[in-house]
Specification:
With 203 residues, the protein is an alpha+beta fold. It folds into two domains: 103 residues, no CATH class; 87 residues, no CATH class. 24% of the residues lie in helices and 26% in strands. Strands 5, 6, 7, 8 and 9 form a five-stranded antiparallel β-sheet that branches. Strands 1-2-3-4 form a four-stranded antiparallel β-sheet. Strand 5 and strand 6 form a beta hairpin. It is globular, with a radius of gyration of 18 Å.
């Protein structure tokens, strides 16, 4: 698996779903070919060729070579966002963070990040996530509660719709919008909630 490692600070793709699947596969493998001290227990390193690159003045966390703003690409607008996958660790646990146009995905949430188990939940629920982000608010509210198993059969996720208050109009006025919670069923207990843009980012 050494050759398949995500050696990066950021990966840009039209669809980040295969990268999330790679993250899951790599972490589940146990990295048998890696040193006994697991890399995610240390601060993530940046490849040498990236270290010397200049950063975007608008988005300092991004290298210019990987920044839609600096590259002047067509994607990266509010209507046609570009999504990045950033690898990191959180108190020694491997995680990935999803970014939109070099910043946070929804304005109401500073970080959209998750570990391996939540990544498995998202991958298992992709068909529902895709349907949810493409639907109108009226159609979203018609979604029926369902239980989705993952491909290995060791995880079941309850998916349902509820109204969520943490959305804001451009005026700053809060507004309730449909929200898609994913709840792992016992013996698991992980849960994650997604609005339209988070569903779009994963799909």
């Amino acid at each position: 698996m050494g050759s398949a490692r995500i050696e990066m600070a950021f990966i840009i793709a039209r669809n980040i779903l295969p990268l999330i699947a790679l993250f899951i596969s790599r972490e589940q493998s146990g990295r048998a070919d890696q040193p006994s001290v697991r890399p995610e227990c240390r601060a993530p390193t940046v490849a040498t060729d990236m270290a010397s690159q200049e950063r975007c003045p608008k988005n300092p966390s991004m290298f210019k070579a990987y920044c839609a703003h600096c590259q002047g690409t067509e994607r990266g607008t509010a209507e046609n966002p570009r999504f990045w996958l950033k690898e990191d660790n959180y108190y020694g646990c491997p995680i990935v963070e999803v970014l939109k146009n070099g910043g946070q995905v929804p304005m109401s949430d500073a970080h959209f990040r998750f570990g391996v188990r939540k990544a498995q939940m998202l991958v298992a629920c992709v068909p529902v996530l895709r349907e949810f982000w493409r639907a109108s608010d009226e159609k979203k509210l018609q979604f029926k509660t369902q239980v989705i198993p993952n491909g290995l059969g060791d995880l079941r996720i309850k998916v349902y719709v509820e109204m969520h208050p943490d959305f804001e109009l451009s005026s700053g006025r809060p507004i309730d919008r449909p929200w898609l919670p994913l709840q792992a069923l016992p013996p698991d207990h992980d849960h994650i909630g997604l609005g339209t843009m988070k569903c779009r980012a994963i799909c």
